[in-house]
Amino acid sequence: MIYHDIKISNTFSLEAVAATYIEYGSVEELRRDLPGAQEPFLHVGGGSNLLFATPRFEGTVFHNCDRSVDVIADEGDSVLVRAGGGLKWDRFVQWCVEQGYYGTENLSLIPGEVGAAAVQNIGAYGAEVKDIIERVEAYDIIDGVEVSLGRDECNYAYRSSLFKSDAGRRYFVIAVVFCLSRQRRLNLSYGALKDIDGEKATLKDVRDAIIAIRRDKLPDPEEIGSAGSFFMNPVVPVSQYEALAEQYPDMPHYPAADGLVKLSAGWMIDRCGLKGIACGHAGVYQKQALVLVNLGGATSEEILALADEVINSVEKKFGVTLRPEVQIVKAKAPAQK
Ligand code: EPU
After folding, report:
1. Per-residue pLDDT tens for 253-275?
2. Ligand 1 contacts CB of residue 289 (under 6 A)
């Protein structure tokens, strides 16, 4: 257990330290280190979806470093694979593609780790990770027991899950069991994949195409700090979409759960003329307006001020309120007695 300030990695490249940082590789280690750890707790993956509103987190940051990957059942067309929560997501995708297992390829190159992918229900190019999750193995920090939650118990929805809710914060994701397919089953429904030849393409072709699209549109976290999409795409009633479509007939829209309509936040931000604008050292990415970037030396205040400007502009022009996809961490020093 480490009891001094530790820089917490985050793909926004902001300076952030934690009073206490605990890396664990197994449930046994977590069970040993949890008692007495200072609250509040923050469980992090690769830091690819976090924005630290304060530079010092006055609590305990936990990080799972179980990077194991094991085939636990192999029957007919289906393969069950258990991956440790600390395994880098894209390394897992690469491994699946190399094994000839279908299911993860559309989610290539998404930053972060396996555990966070299951918390966030990562999605891209017509796929969501929930579609290949069989179950999530977690540690219940309140009852001190290991639990195995089937996909249906995880309350998955667009970029959301049980683990993001207040009720689910008691669970630290230890590992995820995926159900993958040996059977050729490509998902090329998303518009940007229309040029891929569905008859001939291999798993690796799809992965390479997705990597090329992402590299073209999204900043490389190694070069430009960002957290991917900063906002979620808003989901609105059909009547609200229809009213907007009268004014903006070319507005992109997609069917969403419960008969609602998903709008494109990036398109709306772009239409507000905000692409490329800056607030101090924080900017709206030139190639994808849904992404806020650290232009170099940005503070969290600058990023949050820019986010507010974006929210206000979209609200004013379209009457739609954008919500951050990024988790904003606000833990301050506990009040002195
Ligand atoms: N668009 C613009 N201008 C922009 C950005 C987008 O006009 O600056 C338009 C595009 O032309 C397109 C539509 O908006 O018609 C949607 O854009 P895109 O396909 O790039 O997808 P997105 O809705 O902006 C979502 C995910 C991404 C994911 C892509 C591809 C969310 C919040 N974001 O973005 O996920 O990679 O679809 O599937 O759902 C992430 O979550 O961090 C992320 C990058």
Report:
1. 999 988 999 999 999 999 999 99
2. yes
SS3 content of the chain, % helix, strand, coil (to 5): 30, 30, 40
Domains of the chain (ranges plus CATH)?
4-64 (3.30.43.10), 69-215 (3.30.465.10), 220-329 (3.90.78.10)
Q: Is 292 in the pocket of ligand 1 (CB under 6 A)?
A: no
CB contact set of 261 (below 8 Å; sequence gap of 6+)? 235, 236, 237, 238, 240, 241, 253, 254, 255
Cα of 332 vs centre of ligand 1, distance in Å, is 33
Task: Give the model confidence (pLDDT) of 314-335 as tens digits.
Answer: 999 999 999 999 999 986 644 4
Task: Determine the distance separating the centroid of ligand 1 and the alpha carbon of 259, expressed in angstroms.
Answer: 21
Q: Both tokens of residue 292?
A: 């806020």
pTM reported for the whole predicted model:
0.95
Q: What CA–CA distance (Å, rounded) separates 325 from 101?
A: 29
